[in-house]
Write a structure and sequence with these properties.
By secondary structure, this protein is mainly α. The protein has one domain. It contains 3 helices and 2 strands. Strands 1-2 form a two-stranded antiparallel ribbon. The longest helix has 45 residues. The protein is rod-shaped, with a radius of gyration of 35 Å. It starts with a helix and ends in a 12-residue tail after the last strand.
């Protein structure tokens, strides 16, 4: 009969209860840490997005300047009438004005 009510379990019931209590306490700690992490992670992602907006927003002044400068650098490399690239001699082989 003592085996049925747990009186003769040599403290296993108390050890199991302590283990379950510890598990529950750690779950609560993990939830607190996860909430803090999620909050900070969300803030970081939001701010990263805001920092990147300046040069990636279509039509922004900085994006327009960059696109224009790339276009102007590459324009002399192509013959528009023929639709293909024009060979450009290396800088050391060009005549200096």
């Amino acid at each position: 009969m003592s085996a049925l009510d747990g009186a003769g379990d040599d403290g296993l019931r108390a050890k199991k209860k302590a283990q379950l209590d510890l598990k529950e306490r750690r779950r609560g700690e993990r939830e607190t840490q996860q909430k803090a992490f999620n909050k900070h992670n969300g803030e970081v992602r939001f701010i990263e997005g805001k920092l990147g907006d300046g040069d990636n927003v279509p039509g922004s002044e900085l994006n327009l300047r960059v696109a224009r400068s790339i276009f102007l650098k590459n324009q002399p490399l192509y013959a528009a009438s023929k639709g293909r690239g024009v060979p450009v001699p290396p800088r050391w082989a060009r005549a200096e004005d």
